[in-house]
């Protein structure tokens, strides 16, 4: 057994971590607001927010204090007991949404797993075992469990893990004719992201979600909205379904639900929830007091109308400036967004070079992300200040200038 502590560097990752990730060379050690500092004390403006997780930035004082306070009271009981923070959080989510029942878990993948299992169980209870088919969309992303990666519409994530669960099909996103051709009385559920995030930041077109909802009602299939990335204020509404005016039967949430503390949730109605009878599903850590206490405050802050208006205002500024920068350097051919979920599609001259811009951004002190090889993705904290926004945009401009040579 080694006595000395290893030197903590990026090289240590390659020595001790399973190689399923390839993180950047820099290692952030501290964050405040929309700013991060690395081991060398260099600062970065953060336009990634932990991939839409740190919706209130880093080290938000209310969240930090809540974590400390709850940490001195009660952390975990498992599902053999309930706890006050979980009940308060569930009640608040029901109050703010269409939901009447909530199931807590630890991540977006687990929330989607629960939603898909519930949809099959509900269909089994009401219509029989033949009604089990699930329809998803191509280029969608719903998690990394074997079930959710099978439902996701990107073949690369399933490769080498076959055979995957059956009864799952995929149709093009925003193509209602394809959905109509695929759905039948054997369909138990359709799962859709109101905005495809990992698939390239593609918002649902006008009328698409309404038409899918109508098809689901016609065939007695449940409509599941995956709002892992679009939820918790990112769209300018608490959940994007409000923006589209289409109410799902089941909704999943995670990422910003805990603003960095791991928690996921599945929201649904009394009638549908009834199929999850005692023992049909569970989660050891799901709904623990520590996570729910933090999430309760996160929900309070993220549902504030002033913050949601700030999201809309900041999104308009950011997309406008990115459009101008894209034209200046001939780098973006399209900019798509829903609130502060923004995708900049690279122009033909910079085809598949989104990651290059991310890497150059690190040298200029700005953190950016991708949604596939050809889309630069920005998901800044929802409470990013005007000062942080301006400084970050200047650093993005510097990175683009360097890339343009």
Automatic annotation (TrEMBL):
<feature type="binding site">
    <location>
        <position position="141"/>
    </location>
    <ligand>
        <name>pyridoxal 5'-phosphate</name>
    </ligand>
</feature>
<dbReference type="InterPro" id="IPR049704">
    <property type="entry name" value="Aminotrans_3_PPA_site"/>
</dbReference>
<keyword id="KW-0963">Cytoplasm</keyword>
<feature type="modified residue" description="N6-(pyridoxal phosphate)lysine">
    <location>
        <position position="255"/>
    </location>
</feature>
<dbReference type="InterPro" id="IPR004636">
    <property type="entry name" value="AcOrn/SuccOrn_fam"/>
</dbReference>
<dbReference type="GO" id="GO:0006526">
    <property type="term" value="P:L-arginine biosynthetic process"/>
</dbReference>
<comment type="subunit">
    <text>Homodimer.</text>
</comment>
<dbReference type="InterPro" id="IPR015422">
    <property type="entry name" value="PyrdxlP-dep_Trfase_small"/>
</dbReference>
<dbReference type="InterPro" id="IPR005814">
    <property type="entry name" value="Aminotrans_3"/>
</dbReference>
<dbReference type="GO" id="GO:0005737">
    <property type="term" value="C:cytoplasm"/>
</dbReference>
<feature type="binding site">
    <location>
        <position position="284"/>
    </location>
    <ligand>
        <name>pyridoxal 5'-phosphate</name>
    </ligand>
</feature>
<dbReference type="GO" id="GO:0030170">
    <property type="term" value="F:pyridoxal phosphate binding"/>
</dbReference>
<feature type="binding site">
    <location>
        <position position="144"/>
    </location>
    <ligand>
        <name>N(2)-acetyl-L-ornithine</name>
    </ligand>
</feature>
<feature type="binding site">
    <location>
        <position position="283"/>
    </location>
    <ligand>
        <name>N(2)-acetyl-L-ornithine</name>
    </ligand>
</feature>
<keyword id="KW-0055">Arginine biosynthesis</keyword>
<keyword id="KW-0808">Transferase</keyword>
<dbReference type="InterPro" id="IPR015421">
    <property type="entry name" value="PyrdxlP-dep_Trfase_major"/>
</dbReference>
<dbReference type="GO" id="GO:0042802">
    <property type="term" value="F:identical protein binding"/>
</dbReference>
<protein>
    <recommendedName>
        <fullName>Acetylornithine aminotransferase</fullName>
        <ecNumber>2.6.1.11</ecNumber>
    </recommendedName>
</protein>
<dbReference type="InterPro" id="IPR015424">
    <property type="entry name" value="PyrdxlP-dep_Trfase"/>
</dbReference>
<dbReference type="InterPro" id="IPR017652">
    <property type="entry name" value="Ac/SucOrn_transaminase_bac"/>
</dbReference>
<dbReference type="GO" id="GO:0003992">
    <property type="term" value="F:N2-acetyl-L-ornithine:2-oxoglutarate 5-aminotransferase activity"/>
</dbReference>
<dbReference type="Pfam" id="PF00202">
    <property type="entry name" value="Aminotran_3"/>
</dbReference>
<dbReference type="InterPro" id="IPR050103">
    <property type="entry name" value="Class-III_PLP-dep_AT"/>
</dbReference>
<keyword id="KW-0663">Pyridoxal phosphate</keyword>
<feature type="binding site">
    <location>
        <begin position="108"/>
        <end position="109"/>
    </location>
    <ligand>
        <name>pyridoxal 5'-phosphate</name>
    </ligand>
</feature>
<keyword id="KW-0032">Aminotransferase</keyword>
<comment type="similarity">
    <text>Belongs to the class-III pyridoxal-phosphate-dependent aminotransferase family. ArgD subfamily.</text>
</comment>
<keyword id="KW-0028">Amino-acid biosynthesis</keyword>
<comment type="pathway">
    <text>Amino-acid biosynthesis; L-arginine biosynthesis; N(2)-acetyl-L-ornithine from L-glutamate: step 4/4.</text>
</comment>
<feature type="binding site">
    <location>
        <begin position="226"/>
        <end position="229"/>
    </location>
    <ligand>
        <name>pyridoxal 5'-phosphate</name>
    </ligand>
</feature>
């Amino acid at each position: 057994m080694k006595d000395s502590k290893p030197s903590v560097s990026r090289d240590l990752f390659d020595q001790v971590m399973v190689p399923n990730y390839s993180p950047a060379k820099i290692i952030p050690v501290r964050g405040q607001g929309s700013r991060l500092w690395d081991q060398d004390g260099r600062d970065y403006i953060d336009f990634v927010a932990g991939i839409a997780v740190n919706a209130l930035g880093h080290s938000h004082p209310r969240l930090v204090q809540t974590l400390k306070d709850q940490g001195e009271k009660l952390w975990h009981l498992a599902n053999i007991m309930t706890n006050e923070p979980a009940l308060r959080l569930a009640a608040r989510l029901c109050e703010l949404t269409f939901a009447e029942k909530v199931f807590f878990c630890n991540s977006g993948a687990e929330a989607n797993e629960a939603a898909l299992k519930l949809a099959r169980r509900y269909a089994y209870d009401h219509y029989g075992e033949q009604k089990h088919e699930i329809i998803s969309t191509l280029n969608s992303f719903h998690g990394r469990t074997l079930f959710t990666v099978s439902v996701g519409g990107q073949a690369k994530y399933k490769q080498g893990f076959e055979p995957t669960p059956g009864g799952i099909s995929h149709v093009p996103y925003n193509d209602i004719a394809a959905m109509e051709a695929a759905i039948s009385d054997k369909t138990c559920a359709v799962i859709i992201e109101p905005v495809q995030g990992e698939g390239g930041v593609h918002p649902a077109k006008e009328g698409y979600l309404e038409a899918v909802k109508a098809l689901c009602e016609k065939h007695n299939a449940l409509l599941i909205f995956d709002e892992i990335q679009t939820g918790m204020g990112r769209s300018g509404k608490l959940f994007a379904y409000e923006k589209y005016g289409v109410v799902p039967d089941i909704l999943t949430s995670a990422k910003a639900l805990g603003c960095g503390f791991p928690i996921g949730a599945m929201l649904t109605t009394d009638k549908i929830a009834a199929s999850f009878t005692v023992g049909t599903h569970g989660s050891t850590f799901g709904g623990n007091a520590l996570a729910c206490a933090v999430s309760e405050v996160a929900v309070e802050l993220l549902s504030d109308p002033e913050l949601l208006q700030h999201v809309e205002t900041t999104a308009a500024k950011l997309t406008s400036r990115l459009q101008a920068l894209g034209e200046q350097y001939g780098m973006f051919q399209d900019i798509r967004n829903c609130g502060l979920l923004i995708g900049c599609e690279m122009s033909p001259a910079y085809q598949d070079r989104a990651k290059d811009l991310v890497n150059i951004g690190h040298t200029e002190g700005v953190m950016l992300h991708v949604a596939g090889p050809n889309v630069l993705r920005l998901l800044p904290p929802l409470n990013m200040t005007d000062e942080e926004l301006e400084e970050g945009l200047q650093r993005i401009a510097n990175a683009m200038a360097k890339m343009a040579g």
